[in-house]
Amino acid sequence: MELFNHLNQENLLPFSGEVNYFPNFFNKAQCELYFKKLTREIDWRQEPIWLFGKQIMQPRLTALYGNPDIPYGYSGIEMNANPWTDFLLDIKETIEQIAQIDFTHVLLNNYRHGKDSMGWHRDNEKVLGTNPTIASVSFGTPRKFQFRLYKDKTLKKEIILENGSLLLMKGETQHHWEHQLPKSNLVKGGRINLTFRKIYP
Ligand SMILES: O=C(O)CCC(=O)C(=O)O
Ligand SMILES: [Fe+2]
């Protein structure tokens, strides 16, 4: 029996997946620097998605960076990755040490205020492999992040993703649990999230 994983972190999920939370993974100075750079230097766009047969604009800004020549389809849109920048590589290398995986891409989300959000979904696309490790880094205003069991949507777990935190989703998480970043009337400030992924072309 495995009592602890290698990081000695507790699992946020009760079963059928593994989620570890690391608050203050980045220090205050790094948080300020990265939030500024992410705001100014990323090629942010508001992209349309297809939802129930209708094309609507996503309620957030997005961008994709990563290794060249690996196209990445996401929610019905094919995004071409921008090449890595120096500071994105710095962040990637820092989290690769703890995630113990070489990531090929990062999907960036810019939630400009509390009305920006991301709805319930699983990151279970074929190109991510069977049990993807996804590393989610947050900068800026804290936001609520929720999980619910795919087969019993009344079973929920939630956590506040704080400035400078890292959330690792691993194992069978993407098979059995959906996640979302709900809208909030209370949140005024902006938040930028990076989800590092490994794509198997
Ligand atoms: O903003 C977040 O914390 C979640 C982002 C997410 O779930 C995704 O990019 O797939
Ligand atoms: Fe996701």
From TrEMBL:
The keyword Lyase does not apply. Keywords: Dioxygenase, Oxidoreductase. Pfam families: 2OG-FeII_Oxy_2. Residues 102-200 form the Fe2OG dioxygenase domain. GO terms for molecular function: dioxygenase activity. The keyword GTP-binding does not apply. It comes from the Bacteria. This is Alpha-ketoglutarate-dependent dioxygenase AlkB family protein. It comes from Shivajiella indica. The lineage of its organism: Bacteria, Pseudomonadati, Bacteroidota, Cytophagia, Cytophagales.
